[in-house]
Task: inverse folding
């Protein structure tokens, strides 16, 4: 058992990207933030499934080339091997929860 306060962790890129509250041993849990216009490189996972739950704003998530605009209160589930690309095309900050399971340290494959 443990408790982590979000304020004790930092976003990967200063004011954006993932802020991991938990990495393993069985799943990842992160708060993710994107400023207007920011994106995250297209990638997929061989084993892990990924979920995004939108807390604030709306974000475009392309899954296997199909655009999905996901809004506050919505969840998108992404299966292993589905290529996904996230971009904030709005004029405001997007904040969401990301979960990945089952945890694997090196399961991300980036796409050019």
Result:
């Amino acid at each position: 058992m443990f408790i982590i306060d979000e304020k004790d962790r930092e976003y990967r890129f200063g004011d954006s990207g993932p802020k991991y509250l938990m990495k393993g041993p069985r799943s990842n849990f992160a708060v993710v933030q994107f400023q207007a216009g920011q994106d995250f490189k297209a990638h997929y996972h061989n084993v892990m499934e990924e979920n995004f739950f939108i807390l604030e704003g709306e974000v475009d998530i392309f899954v296997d080339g199909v655009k999905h605009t996901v809004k506050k209160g919505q969840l998108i589930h992404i299966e292993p091997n589905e290529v996904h690309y996230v971009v904030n095309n709005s004029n405001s900050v997007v904040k969401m929860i990301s979960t990945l399971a089952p945890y694997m340290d090196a399961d991300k494959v980036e796409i050019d």
About this structure: The two ends are 40 Å apart (CA to CA). Strands lie at 17-23, 28-34, 39-45, 49-56, 58-63, 66-71, 75-78, 84-87, 94-101, 108-110. The chain has no helices and ten strands. The chain has one domain: 11-105.
